[in-house]
Each structure stands twice: as structure tokens, then as C-alpha cells.
Specification:
mainly alpha, two-stranded antiparallel sheet
Length: 279
């Protein structure tokens, strides 16, 4: 035990072991934390995910709205205009799914709405709320947590703590007891680089957590998109994003910065040929 706490090689080994224990504890925590979520994912894949929920899991509310339009159009609840505007095909009919029913109610109160308007139109608030509540109740996170930055923080803390340990014990440099104590800085740098590289093996924050579920969801969305005619599909996709406003036409002779002198059609003296206030 004294070797681990007072000798150079022992101190280096001790803090590498501490870092290893931190990795093991984080891995065990993730396994226990995600146990229920793994069961949920298996159940979802077994019974299938509807296209609207699938689009929301792999995208956002806009993607879910697009999938809802495809499903409702294929089932005869919606008619899609050439410009992507939505209208009820059979007013009074309602789908059984509460999320789709909320969408139909919104479309009935906002005829001609396009997909890009659904993400903030007040008539579709119920639809958006049900989407969020369903996923919140499932408690399923689709992206990884903070494992990589946490492990990187453990790496930095381990190296820093090892440096303090060396200062207190005045231990010799590992593998070269005759080296100057300043060589400990190089040892710390090498160790930090190695431990930081280990942290890169953990999944990053933006990495998808359930690749099999992602593949299933993408397949469901593709099936819903393929269930409508090509013209309908193009119209819906064209209405998915808000069109950019057309640039204002520029008057002849004006500069891009809109200078008042340009509107006069001459130079900064108002077009008097440099003779402003001439003698």
C-alpha cells in the first residue's frame, strides 16, 4: 500500500486506477439507468411505431406534422392542394388516434395551412401538446447523455490530483528516480493525453442512443411517404419550410446601402457638378 501512495510508479498507477474506477462506475450507472428504457425500446419495436411518433422521435414537430399529413391524406381525411395547403376531405370524420384527431381539428379550423405553419399555428397547439406529452410519459431519451464530458472531467481531475499528491509526498519521477522533479510535468501531460483519449471512446452528446429504433422509425416514415401519390408528396414537401420573402426591388441609380445621395441621382452635392455654392 505504501508503494501506491509514496513511490513515483505507485502514484501513477494509483491515479490511473482511480480513473478506471470512475469509468466503471459511470458505465454501471448508465446500464442501470437505461434498463427500463431498453425494455421500452424493445416493446416499441415489437409492436411497431406509428409514422407520426416515428417522425417525432427521429426529428421534430415539423417532421411529425409532415408524417401526419401523409397518414391522413392516405386515409382520406385530408385533401392537399397543389401549393401544399391542407383541407378536410370529409368534415366530421375523425381518426381514432388522439394525436391525429387533434391534427384534424386543427386543420378544420385553419383551412389552407401548410406544414411549416403547424409548428407555431395556435389551432395546432393541441396536436403539439399531445406529441410532447406522449414522449415525456414514455421517458425515452433519443440522444446520449453527458458521459463523454464527464469522463473528460474525471481525466483532468485525476491528473490534477496526482500532481497535488506528488507535491505532498515529494515522490521521485516514475521509471527515472534521478530525473529532475520538473519532469513530473511531462508525466502529467502524457497521462492527461492518454486519459483524454479514453474519454473519446464514450459516445458524444449528439450521438443517437437507439440505432435499431432509429432505423425502424425511418422505415415507418418512408412507408407513410410512399403511401400517397407523387403529386401529393411533392406538394407536402414543398410546404414543409417557410418560403423566404422576396427581396425588395432596388430603384434605378441607387446604391445597395440606400444612400440618400444616390436617390438624388448625382453626387453628394445633390448633382450640381461640384459647383454647390459656387462663386
Amino acid at each position: 500500500m505504501d508503494w501506491l501512495l509514496t513511490d513515483g510508479e505507485g502514484i501513477l498507477t494509483f491515479w490511473v486506477l482511480v480513473f478506471g474506477v470512475c469509468n466503471v462506475l459511470r458505465g454501471a450507472y448508465c446500464l442501470v439507468r437505461d434498463r427500463g428504457r431498453r425494455r421500452t425500446v424493445r416493446a416499441m419495436r415489437a409492436r411497431g411505431v406509428d409514422p407520426v411518433r416515428a417522425a417525432y422521435l427521429t426529428g421534430d414537430a415539423r417532421d411529425a406534422a409532415e408524417a401526419a399529413v401523409f397518414v391522413l391524406a392516405a386515409d382520406g381525411f385530408l385533401r392537399i392542394a397543389d401549393d401544399g395547403g391542407l383541407r378536410l376531405a370529409s368534415p366530421g370524420r375523425m381518426p381514432r388516434d388522439p394525436v391525429l384527431a387533434a391534427f384534424v381539428r386543427g386543420a378544420g379550423g385553419a383551412p389552407g395551412a401548410r406544414v411549416y405553419e403547424i409548428v407555431d399555428h395556435p389551432r395546432f397547439e393541441e396536436f403539439r401538446t399531445l406529441l410532447r406529452e406522449r414522449e415525456r410519459d414514455a421517458g425515452l431519451s433519443m440522444t446520449t447523455g453527458l458521459s463523454r464530458p464527464l469522463i473528460a472531467a474525471f481525466a483532468a481531475m485525476s491528473v490534477f490530483a496526482m500532481g497535488l499528491h506528488v507535491v505532498v509526498t515529494e515522490a521521485p519521477v516514475p521509471f527515472d528516480e534521478d530525473a529532475r522533479r520538473a519532469a513530473w510535468l511531462l508525466v502529467c501531460l502524457i497521462l492527461w493525453t492518454a486519459l483524454w483519449a479514453v474519454s473519446l471512446l464514450w459516445p458524444g452528446d449528439g450521438r443517437r442512443r437507439w440505432p435499431e429504433l432509429d432505423a425502424h422509425c425511418r422505415d415507418q416514415v418512408a412507408r407513410a411517404r410512399a403511401a400517397v401519390p407523387e403529386g401529393t408528396r411533392r406538394a407536402v414537401i414543398a410546404g414543409k419550410y417557410r418560403p423566404r420573402p422576396a427581396p425588395e426591388p432596388r430603384r434605378a441609380g441607387s446604391r445597395p446601402d440606400g444612400s440618400w445621395a444616390d436617390d438624388l441621382g448625382g453626387d453628394s452635392c445633390g448633382g450640381c457638378g461640384g459647383g454647390c455654392g459656387g462663386e
